[in-house]
Sequence to fold (730 residues):
Amino acid sequence: MGGKKTLTVLTSALAASLLLTACSGSGSEDASSASGETEVKFMHLWPEGSSKKHYDVVNEIIADFEAENEGVTIDLEVLSNEQYKDKLRVLSTSGDLPDVGMTWAAGFLEPYVGGNMFAPLDDLIEEELSDAFVPGTAEAYALDGATYGLPLELNIVSLYYNNAMFEEQGLEPPATYEELLEVVDAFNEEGIQPIALGNRDAWTGSLWYMYLADRLGGADTLNKAIDRSGSFEDPALVEAAAKVQELVDRDAFVNGFNGLADEEAKSMFMSEQAPMYLIATWDLPNYTTNESVPQEFRDSVDYMNFPTVEGEGDTQSFVGGPGVGLFVAEESEVKEEAKDFAAYFVKAWGEQAVEKAGVIPATKVDAASLDLPQMYIDILNELNGASNITLFADVQMSPDTAQVHLDSIQALFGNEMTPEEFAKAHEDALSKE
Amino acid sequence: MGLNAMNKVMSNKLHIALYIAPALLLVSVLVFIPLILSGYYGLMDWDGIGAKTFIGLENYITGIQDSKFWDSALHSFLLAVFSTLSLAIYLAVSIILASKIKGADLLRKIYLIPMLLSSVAIAQLWIKVYNPSSGILNTFLRSIGIENPPNWLADPTIVLFAIFIPILWQYAGFYILIYYAALKNIPESLIEAARIDGATPFQIATRIKLPLIKEVVSVTIVLAIVGSLKYFDLIYVMTAGGPNGASEVMASYMYKLAFNSYNFGYGSAIGFLLLIITMVVTVIVRKVTATKERIEY
Fold:
């Protein structure tokens, strides 16, 4: 597939979606003028086929909203993840964004905000939704002092481990990095590969680097390096990169991790080939409620906060971040209604998401009042006690720099780069911006 | 319709235009217009969403100085070299298949199987084969006593070659089919005459069959080289160009720039450079492999 084909596909997708939007656009105008009703167009990315639970919760919320707000109807369009991204891009070029839709944080919304396509939602956050969000989540959608998204999901990264495998070897879960190294050696001696890691996707390796950086340099060092008030050549960040290579040299990660996808690493953890796996809370259903995973395995999985390193670091500081959030289109003709709906949706989603869809919302949740698996309750409590959540580095960075970061992560893990070169690659990329 | 009626229809310009129009329209909309557009986008600083800023040839100049682009171009050219060399193997296989050996029919069908699979399925299959812990390849290597078999897709020194194998395998059936058809086209009488004159099977193959299908061989060389230069699918699915660009080719680099880095302007420029490189190489290869005399039986 060369340039031609990619473009071909794009062009035909463009043509098709222009046609579609042209039709639906004229249709909705007719409807609103005829009946005097207001129609709010809403686009989301949880199709019935692949995300049934999400899909149902969304429909319930919409039904409730329509019942409570006479005269307002929600016109729904559902697409799967990748198609959603493509369509949003195409709609944005023709000025036909839905009134309410979904966006990702930071780097993703930058071009949309730059093109003046998303409406600032600070008034909602200050009034209707004041104190509703977990600190640090709505901020991920802020740009130049205004907030353009209302987060729906929150994921934090923990080190999941297979308790049964630990017990079999007579090992304790490591509380410090030094203990982690001992555990790694012990598993290796038994011929068991210690940590499942699929670094073909590179954001997975980035999680390890970020946590080591957080523990060694505190919550702010990495953030500052990215926003240019600090530097990647900070000793703590270089040391974090060195620690990554120490883990690699100790054979902490499964064979050939740089060629494995995250899915493959996950399946190694879930088929008990590797006892440890660093991943975010979006995987929680696999360890709690997912009936297609053997009960025995789900019972043996537990999690720990990332260990301290050299006696330093705050285990209540997390790497993570919000997933998708809602935006309201700047050009919307029914902006007030759209904003009302967005605020209503966020609140209702926050009340229902964990229990009904297994998604941890970015709004505060009272764990005690809900009927949840123990692991969910524990994680929600961790969240309430979190001292800091550092947003995923590749999300924080602009798409260009994120690509350099991900490539460098692969090179660092593959021992193709020294920690110093790793720091320099980041400095070079960031200084070009 | 008789030949006369046919000629009558074809002499009417309107009819000709009508017959050509649908195909011409499709090709223009789907190929030529996007081609020109991508060259044009290459002149812009554009993230794919916001406003386009005209920056002249800056993207093209950056591309020409971009070492990552030339690394990926080198990988593409290596693939082209290996694809061309592998044609010799396919040719040998076809000559054997075409010489009435037992089971030739069955074998021909077996060689064709990879062509019937979609690229993604092939990629998934080979990802499993190459899996460093549980893959069939490393399991076999360990069973014959090699303790630390390579991490095929993770080791930057071998990943490129590891990924070439499924690519070559994928297209083997296609080239064998072409050669087989060309060989079957050679009149039996020529072979018969050679045999009577006492030529050995090897002499028949190299002195008679090969020269007679020279034109077909030269076409397959062009196909193999052009196909390699624009190659994308398996690399995208199996390694996404990684680790750290070790298996990046021109098309996957272009994709990464446009869709991962949201650098549509630069990505388009790289796509256009890819087009130019491919065209230049095609012209050169056509010149080099051109056959002067036409063969008629």
